[in-house]
Specification:
The chain is an all-alpha fold. It is built from nine helices and no strands. It starts with 10 loop residues before the first helix and ends with a helix. The relative contact order is 0.11.
Length: about 200
């Protein structure tokens, strides 16, 4: 006898929570529509009704994850603390917690899928832009307070985040010999040099 399919109270949110839980437990390779449906006690067709494709499930899970992290990022950028301390906290928040960090697994997978699915780029760029704006705000605060040397804050953000993206990719895929703390140190070394911060 077929198992009864249950009705979800908050279908989209519950699906996204389940997708992130599946990625956290088993990685992206194990995330299938059938597996997600089993986890939720519903059907694959029900999931596709809300998202349309696995690409959209992944993209919306990434958006959901970033939306949950954004208030924490804005809080650390705006807190009453020295600008360099806030910048170090930003770098720490940006980088993966370690190999197979589920949020970063999603970022890397979505990046790779934009080659074949260009429409994913718009949402990816929108999510990335939030990190850019908060970093620009942080550096502008530091410049205004006299803690940082005047600089092109937009260009600094682009360069620092490109560095962090490269470091993050190596961390999340588990490149041998990679050390998260040393990467964070490299990023802050670049910031110190560019912004003329006393070490």
């Amino acid at each position: 006898m077929a198992r009864e399919r249950r009705r979800l109270d908050r279908p989209r949110e519950q699906m996204l929570e389940a997708a992130m839980a599946a990625i956290t437990e088993n990685g992206l390779a194990e995330l299938t529509m059938a597996g997600l449906a089993r986890r939720l006690g519903t059907s694959g067709g029900h999931i596709l009704y809300y998202f349309g494709s696995k690409d959209q499930v992944l993209l919306e899970t990434l958006r959901w994850s970033e939306d949950r992290l954004a208030p924490r990022r804005r809080e650390l950028v705006g807190r009453a603390a020295p600008a360099r301390e806030r910048l170090a906290a930003y770098v720490d928040l940006y980088l993966p917690t370690g190999a197979a960090d589920p949020r970063w697994l999603l970022w890397v997978d979505v990046w790779s899928r934009t080659i074949a699915v260009p429409e994913l780029r718009e949402t990816q760029a929108e999510l990335d832009h939030g990190w850019h704006l908060d970093l620009v705000r942080l550096v502008e605060d530091g410049v205004g307070a006299g803690e940082f040397a005047p600089t092109d804050t937009g260009a600094f953000s682009v360069r620092l985040r490109a560095m962090l993206d490269g470091f993050a990719t190596q961390i999340v895929i588990g490149v041998p010999g990679v050390d998260r703390d040393s990467f964070a140190g490299h990023a802050m070394g670049y910031a110190d040099q560019t912004l003329s911060i006393d070490s």
